[in-house]
């Protein structure tokens, strides 16, 4: 009787540790099946640094000549199904997984083979692209969230805080606090800027002058002139200037935008989108012109609108409800000629934070809070045709943004021109915002 063995892995940048494991796995029986993880499966299980796409990883395994058969692993729970349907006698993986797959003993023999010391895909990736050292220049509401998430991204590490700009009073024993700006910049490769929008220009400029890549909360700039100057400067210096808008890279939003392009609801005619937040201590919130509803939310809200309806806005009307120059509520109506969009943004005010995309064949509904999107429904006239999609995101979602930033720095598969173009368009809309009809908020 032929003895069948199965093993699974990502096999990114295939190395001698992987090969040694496959050789020993093969010796456990007569026929070896290798399960290679699908890209989406790795993303779902939080393995976000994988360099090679599935096709390349499969090809590398094929070339070893060790696998009698190669299959793709796509979901949790598949191992049991595979073991049963391929009639497997032995399941094996490296010793880094000891105990984790004991539940398979019910179905076949489980063997943990000693892992090869001193080599790993992570090590190769790090050698190819050293870990990016990041410092906090300006702290705020997102600083701690950013830090927590950074600890899950192997290729990036937060090291320093510039104490003089720590207006939020961010306290973290793991980080080094600098009061000398030069020393701060020398300790890092990139900055994360979380401060009010009117400070961005000078902070970005100084970071670029000190050879640091920049990740900055939106809006990056207050006008086109500043934006053009610093995007050009960054480009000349070979540095990346990137907007820290995380919703944009959530897996569910990416999938939703692709589905819309393929016409699932016909032609899009209208978008209705809202974001709002009442902060815990509204009384202590810095209330200036640059901290209000529009500045806090515009980039998040306008991204889906512009991605779906395009960049040609015929007309734009805005209303802002303010007190002492701080905007609590902004409402906007955009006319794209063949389609329209309305948006509502609130700070210190609460509204349903949904996203509804109206099309000629049906509509998309993303429940509140849409900016944490992991689920959406595509609905039609006949309710029974409703389709529901769920794409989980890990942690607080910052990691997808960090990875995009790192990819750009390492020059892989990302186009920064897109980023710049969006930034410019936001600035045009921001200019309209300065002409918004202002009513008193009481
Ligand atoms: N491996 C090894 N020695 C190394 C590195 C990896 O023996 N120095 C082994 C791992 O233990 C694993 C296989 O090589 O059995 C593939 O490793 P990875 O590509 O890191 O895949 P992994 O994330 O361990 O996936 O469902 C997926 C599986 O659970 C394992």
UniProtKB/TrEMBL annotation:
One of its GO terms (molecular function) is nucleotide binding. InterPro entries: Archaeal_FAD_synthase, Cyt_trans-like, Gfo/Idh/MocA-like_OxRdtase_N, NAD(P)-bd_dom_sf, Rossmann-like_a/b/a_fold. Signal peptide: none annotated. Residues 6-126 form the Cytidyltransferase-like domain. Residues 133-242 form the Gfo/Idh/MocA-like oxidoreductase N-terminal domain. Pfam families: CTP_transf_like, GFO_IDH_MocA. Keywords: Nucleotidyltransferase, Transferase. This is Putative glycerol-3-phosphate cytidylyltransferase.
């Amino acid at each position: 009787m032929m003895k069948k063995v199965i093993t699974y892995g990502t096999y990114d940048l295939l190395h001698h540790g992987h090969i040694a494991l496959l050789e020993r796995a093969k010796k456990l029986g007569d026929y070896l099946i290798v399960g290679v993880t699908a890209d989406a499966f790795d993303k779902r299980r939080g393995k976000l640094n994988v360099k090679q796409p599935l096709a390349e990883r499969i090809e590398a395994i094929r070339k070893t000549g060790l696998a009698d058969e190669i299959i793709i692993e796509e979901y949790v729970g598949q191992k049991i199904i595979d073991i049963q349907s391929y009639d497997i006698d032995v399941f094996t993986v490296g010793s880094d997984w000891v105990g984790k797959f004991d539940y398979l003993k019910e179905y076949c023999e489980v063997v943990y083979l000693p892992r090869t010391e001193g080599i790993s895909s992570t090590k190769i990736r790090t050698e190819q692209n050293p870990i990016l050292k990041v410092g906090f220049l300006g702290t705020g509401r997102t600083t701690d969230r950013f830090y927590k998430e950074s600890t899950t991204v192997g290729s990036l590490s937060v090291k320093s805080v510039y104490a003089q700009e720590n207006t939020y009073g961010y306290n973290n024993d793991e980080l080094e606090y600098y009061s000398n700006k030069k020393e701060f910049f020398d300790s890092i490769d990139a900055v994360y800027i979380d401060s009010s929008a009117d400070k961005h220009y000078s902070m970005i400029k100084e970071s670029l002058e000190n050879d640091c890549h920049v990740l900055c909360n939106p809006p990056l700039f207050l006008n086109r002139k500043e934006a053009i100057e610093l995007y050009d400067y960054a480009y000349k210096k070979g540095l990346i200037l990137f907007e820290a808008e995380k919703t944009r890279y959530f897996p569910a939003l990416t999938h939703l935008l692709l589905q819309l392009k393929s016409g699932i609801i016909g032609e899009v005619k209208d978008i209705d989108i809202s974001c709002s937040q009442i902060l815990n201590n509204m009384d202590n919130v810095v209330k200036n012109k640059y901290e209000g509803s529009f500045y806090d939310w515009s980039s998040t809200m306008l991204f889906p609108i512009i991605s779906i309806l395009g960049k040609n806005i015929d007309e734009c009307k805005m209303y802002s409800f303010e007190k002492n120059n701080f905007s609590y509520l902004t409402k906007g109506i955009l006319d794209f000629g063949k389609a329209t969009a309305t948006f509502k943004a609130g700070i210190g005010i609460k509204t349903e934070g949904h996203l509804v995309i109206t099309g000629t064949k049906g509509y998309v509904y993303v429940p509140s809070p849409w900016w944490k999107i992991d689920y959406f429904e595509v609905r039609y006239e006949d309710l029974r045709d409703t389709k529901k999609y769920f794409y989980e995101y890990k942690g607080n979602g910052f990691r997808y943004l960090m990875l995009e930033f790192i990819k750009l720095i390492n020059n892989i598969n990302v186009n920064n021109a897109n980023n710049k173009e969006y930034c410019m368009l936001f600035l045009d809309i921001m200019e309209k915002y300065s002409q918004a009809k202002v009513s008193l908020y009481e």
